[in-house]
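Please decode residue identities from the backbone states below.
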């Protein structure tokens, strides 16, 4: 009996031993070691996450990510800044408005306004208008015209100083006085010789006689046709004043007054009296098509040359004297030639 119990005890002990060994092996494969490893990995992940969050909290103070601007954006920003700077007027860079030296009251019917003295025409001023002037160059006055400045010829207006005192009156020629008739001169000759007749009063002369009378004072034998044109142009510019109430050759010579028709009629009759073929031209000048204008065409050596005595007088220059067709008619429109004129 005792031996049987001991034998059973040994068998149970052996079974328990194998069972314990089996359990231990099972724990090694699926139990304790994998659980330990998962715990370690979980702790490492938590530590890594905490480290990242800490770095994120520090990032705004220590490192900032910038986006590199595009070239087009930079150019636009620079251009905008330059425009802003142009609009800002610094106190030291403000251009001072020039102070007027005086004023001019226009006396001629109209005057050309030029970009520079004797330069390109940019506009016109009319009789009765008044302008401040800021500069004077050889009788040319710089005035403020529209949004800029221009120059007019000062001889055709009354010039006042800054205090309103008249400095120079307009240089507009008055009609020449009639020459006194010459008294007969007794000749120490036989009684059969007639006495010298007194010179005829210009007022009693016909238009052809008036032309001969004028030409006898301004033409010399040594002049060629071009010189004769210049002499007649000078006579009319020096002798005449633009006046809308007069238009004939007699008005031009006897009164020294006339509108463009008067200048043109007188020039035509004087030149034709000299035997130089000259036409009266009627048309439009410049961009103004509301009113007609008149000028002359002269034939010298088989070539036509153009003269505008009216504009030569009003501008105080010979800008419109003996020009060829291309130079003269670039901005003119001809209506006709030699209308009924006097």
């Amino acid at each position: 009996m005792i031996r049987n119990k001991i034998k059973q005890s040994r068998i149970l002990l052996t079974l328990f031993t194998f069972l314990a060994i089996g359990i231990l092996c099972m724990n090694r494969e699926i139990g304790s070691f994998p659980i330990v490893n998962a715990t370690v990995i979980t702790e490492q992940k938590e530590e890594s996450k905490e480290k990242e969050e800490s770095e994120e909290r520090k990032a705004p103070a220590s490192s900032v990510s910038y986006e590199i601007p595009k070239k087009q954006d930079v150019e636009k920003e620079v251009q905008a800044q330059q425009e802003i700077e142009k609009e800002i007027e610094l106190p030291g860079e403000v251009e001072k408005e020039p102070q007027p030296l005086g004023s001019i009251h226009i006396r001629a019917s109209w005057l050309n306004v030029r970009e520079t003295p004797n330069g390109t025409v940019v506009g016109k001023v009319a009789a009765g208008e008044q302008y401040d002037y800021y500069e004077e160059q050889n009788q040319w006055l710089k005035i403020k015209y529209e949004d800029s400045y221009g120059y007019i010829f000062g001889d055709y207006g009354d010039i006042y100083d800054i205090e309103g005192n008249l400095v120079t009156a307009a240089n507009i020629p008055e009609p020449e006085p009639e020459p006194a008739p010459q008294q007969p001169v007794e000749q120490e000759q036989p009684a059969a010789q007639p006495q010298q007749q007194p010179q005829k009063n210009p007022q009693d002369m016909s238009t052809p006689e008036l032309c001969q009378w004028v030409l006898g004072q301004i033409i010399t034998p040594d002049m060629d046709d071009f010189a004769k044109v210049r002499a007649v142009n000078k006579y009319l510019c020096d002798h005449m004043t633009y006046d809308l109430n007069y238009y004939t050759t007699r008005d031009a010579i006897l009164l020294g007054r006339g509108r463009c028709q008067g200048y043109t009629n007188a020039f035509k009759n004087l030149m034709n009296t000299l035997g130089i073929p000259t036409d009266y031209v009627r048309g439009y000048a410049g961009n103004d098509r509301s009113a007609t204008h008149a000028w002359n065409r002269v034939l010298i050596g088989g070539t036509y040359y153009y003269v505008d005595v009216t504009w030569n007088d009003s501008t105080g220059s010979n800008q419109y004297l003996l020009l060829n067709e291309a130079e003269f008619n670039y901005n003119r429109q001809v209506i006709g030639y030699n209308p009924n004129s006097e």
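Observation: The longest strand covers residues 130-137.
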